[in-house]
Structures are given as C-alpha cells and as structure tokens.
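**User:** I keep going back and forth on a fold encoding question. It is easy to fool oneself when nobody else works the same problem. Could you pick a protein and write out its sequence and tokenised fold? Could you put it straight underneath, so I can go through it closely?

**Assistant:**
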Amino acid sequence: MFLTSTFFFIFSSQGLVALSLTTQTFMLKSKGCGRIGELCDAHSPVEIAIFYVSIYLIALGNGGAEPALATFGADQFDEEDPKEKQAKTTFLSYFYVALNLGSLISETILVYIETMGEYVLAFWISSLCGFIALIAIVSGSFRYRHFKPSGNPISRFSQVIVASVRKIKLQLPSNGDGLYEDFTRNDSGTRRIYHTNDFKFFDRASIMTPDDGENPHPWRLCTVTQVEEVKCVLRLLPIWLCTILSSVVFIQMISLFVEQGAAMNRKISNFHIPPASMTVFDIISTSVFIICYDKLILPLYVKITKTKPNPPSELQRMGIGLAIATAAIITAGVVEHHRLKYASEGPKETSSLSIFWQTPQYVLVGIAEAFTYVAQWEFFAAQVPDKLKSIGLGLSMCSSAMGSYTSSIILSVVMKITSKNGKPGWVPANLNDGHLDRFFFLCAALTALNLVFFISCAKKYKNIVVERRDEARDMS
C-alpha cells in the first residue's frame, strides 16, 4: 500500500505540474488574441492532448491515492489491541477531516484567486501542495508498518469461482467438515477466516478430491479462508448498494443546492456571495462534529442513555447518518418551496429570499456526512479480509462516484416525465418556472426507502470472524 500510495501521489503531482505549465504556456494566452473582432487561434492537437493527459493524471492520482492512503493508514494499527483499535477509528475520522479542510481551502482561497483571474497561480499552489504531500508520505517510510504483498485479489476471486464450477457435481459436507485449509506458517501478516454457512455453493472450491494431490493447483482447490474472502465481499454488496443511494443526497449538495443558491438573494451590502461558497457550512459542520464526537457527543450519549460506554456500531451510525440526510433533503425542499413564494416575476431567475436560508440544509448534510462516511470507512475496513483491505475502502469511496451517476439518472428520468406537453419540468433552466421542491421531496422519499432497506440489510448482516494472531502462531 505504501508504494501504491506513493505512485499515485507521483501521478497526481505530475498532472498538476503539467496542467500548470500548459495553462501558463498556451491554454490561457492563445496566439492571435488581442485584436478586436478576431477570434483566438485554435489550439493544436498536441496542446489539447497534453491538457487532457494532465487532467486525467490528476484524476487517476487522486482517485487511487485516497483509498490506498486510507488503507495504508488503517494497516498501521492492530485491531486486536483495544487502544490501537480506537486509534484506528480516530485516524479514519481525522483523515476525513483532513480531506474536508483541503476542500475548504480550495473552495475559498483558491476559488478567490481564480475569480481574480489568476488561474496559473492557483494551479501552481496546488502543484506545490501535491509535492509537499508526496514528501510528507515518503519522509516517514522508515517508521511505517509494512506488510508483504499477498497476491492479486482478482485472481483469488476468480480461482474460487472456477474451482466451484469445476466441482459443481460434488456433494457438500455438513457444517464445512473436511474442507481444505492451509495451516502452514503465514508470514504475510494475514489471518485465517473461520468457515460460515452462507453461500454454500462456493464451499465446493475447498473440497479435496484424489485429483488434487499433495500440491493442489490454486485453480482447482482453494482454502476455506480464500472462499470466505469471496463470501465477505458478497455480504457487503447490499450495504454497498445502500451507500450508493445515500450518496445521492450528498451529490445534490454540490449540484442542485448550488443552483438553488444562485436563484436566491446573494447580496450583502456591495458583496455578492458565490453560491458554491455555501458549502463552507457543510465542511465546517462535518469537521467540527467529527472532532467533538469522541470528546463531547459520546460522553453525553452515555450520560443520557445511562448505559456502559458502548458507542453505536458502524452500521448504527450509518443508519443515523441516513436519517439525518433525509431530514436535510426535506429541509432543502421546504426552503425551495419558501423561495418560490418570493420569486421575482419575469425572465430573471431570482428571489428575494436570502441565501442564508440554505444554512440549515448544509449543516444537516455535513452532520450526515460525519456519521455516514467515517462509519462507512470503518465498517468496510473492518469487515474486509486482510488481503482485500484496499478493495473494501475502494468500494466505500467509489460509492460517491456511483451516487453521482445515480443522481444524474434520477434527474434525467424526472425531467423526461415532468417536461411533457411543453411543460418546463421540475428542474428547468429557470428554477422559478419549475418545482425543485418536488424533486427534493422525491429524493427524500427515495432516501427514506433506502434507509428502510439499509436497516433490513444491517439486521441480517453477519460480521466477519477471523482467528487471532496468537492462534495463528500456535497453529504454525
């Protein structure tokens, strides 16, 4: 994970430098500009190619670095040590706070610099920050806990599926008796997983036959641990689907919330508030809530409930986050309904209602994020086997991207249905002609249904059971 994180940071830094150079050299100052009535000369195919390569390098670097870095950081803590287990939770919480603080700086300071027309300066500042991050992670390489690579997870998955299909005609043993497991010494730092009775079809991959011999081929015979790895991921899929639908609410914040704010009164004296800057309330509320959670909120929870210090589990916190997210999107719908009452007549997309009416919905979304995302990272990191940690956090983080696609599909379907017979639809270009409030209420209803489905999945979910490291040493 250390090398993976480092390589992705290098890709991101290279992309930032390339973007800064292209912007400074030819993207902003094309040849032929400056004469009245004449268009700038078009960029050459090579220049356009360099530009796209740079932004794709940034996307690749950031997309790969975040899950790899979170996984690598989580690996630094021993889950079997109570103090280190708590420290791991704290690390993931502050990791998310760090991401939010980075967003806060980019959406305030860098946006202001770009608003002044200094795009080159903003990009070079980003490049400098990228190099500082790269130096920071490399400088601590001698103090990290490093684990040996344990093979390609995709091939391990494929081996279980192929071996199960090959032995589809074999009779399954009761309670997993006689299934193959490798009890030789394991130096990769991974632990064996105990057998479960779910997805019994895959147990066939661990049935030994005379054809397997003393040195079984991995595509014919798999260990119980390897089979259980596949089962663990399959158990996570319903929870993962719920996180995709929950991400739809957070996507609304960076799209429709901003459009809603643009149609409100943004003026304070002679200053006009950029509607995207309202996300500052989300970032601040998320960060403050995470920081205060262990120090203030949990002790208060224990005092009110008069129970032992047994904080809510990851799944319970995710459920609480979904409930708050539903409240946030309902609040947005109420604000939009109120905004339409004060909408200006005519073609202008404005309203006399102050943009600060959006503050509660941003704060609620921020608290929902604090509950959902941090608990989601902890849950996927804890419930994925040792050899698949990167896949677990990768699934968790890519739910946001999948949520973006889902949000776009929902919006497209709603617009196609509501814009028939010449109607403007619920979310037209001019929000004063539509009913964005109805779309928000629809999203709230979908989120509430998702919460019900999530609760059902959470009740049925079975936690992973792995052997302790001292047991592994004794067996070796």
